[in-house]
Write a structure and sequence with these properties.
The protein has helices spanning 3-20, 23-27, 49-64, and strands at 30-37, 46-47, 68-78, 82-92, 102-111, 114-123. It has 136 residues and is α+β, with helices and mostly antiparallel strands. The protein has a single domain (3-125), classed as Nuclear Transport Factor 2, Chain: A. The longest helix has 18 residues, at 3-20. The termini are far apart. Residues 7-125 form the SnoaL-like domain. InterPro entries: NTF2-like_dom_sf, SnoaL-like. It comes from Amycolatopsis rhabdoformis.
């Protein structure tokens, strides 16, 4: 397997675990010192695997009410020991407008021969109208 294909499989397995509400699967291959910036607060992000773990149960509750978490597009760039990936995901309910996609960026390091997620960033594009020139 190439580095890119290993990372692609890691991310796809992670997304499957998220969709299934499998916390152990979500945490797998994440570093103890992970930093994650997420859509909901805290806006300064969470640091460490224990704090990362605590962000998921409320998401699983929301998802169990009918939301989805599906990779639509995934791109991986990998060197020998560091890599990054970005993805667009459908993360929402059927009532969400078309094109309302979650943006995901991951930073990874190869540690003892295994790819490990060290940084994770989730975001949605702002739906607020852009200010008109006179408001800037």
């Amino acid at each position: 397997m190439t580095n890119e294909s290993e990372i692609r499989a890691l991310i796809e397995n992670w997304a499957t675990a998220v969709h299934a509400g499998d916390l152990d699967g979500v945490l797998a291959e994440h570093s103890e010192d992970i930093v994650m910036f997420d859509v909901p607060p805290p806006h300064e992000g969470v640091r460490g695997l224990a704090a990362y773990r605590e962000t998921w149960p409320p998401f699983f509750v929301w998802q169990a009410e009918g939301a989805t978490f599906t990779i639509l597009e995934l791109d991986v760039t990998a060197g020998d020991d560091v890599a990054f990936a970005w993805a667009l995901l459908h993360c929402g309910t059927p009532a969400d407008p078309p094109g309302h996609h979650l943006r995901l960026t991951l930073g990874l390091r190869k540690v003892r021969g295994r790819w490990t997620v060290t940084h994770e960033h989730h975001s949605f594009a702002s739906v607020d109208p852009a200010p008109v020139e006179s408001e800037r």
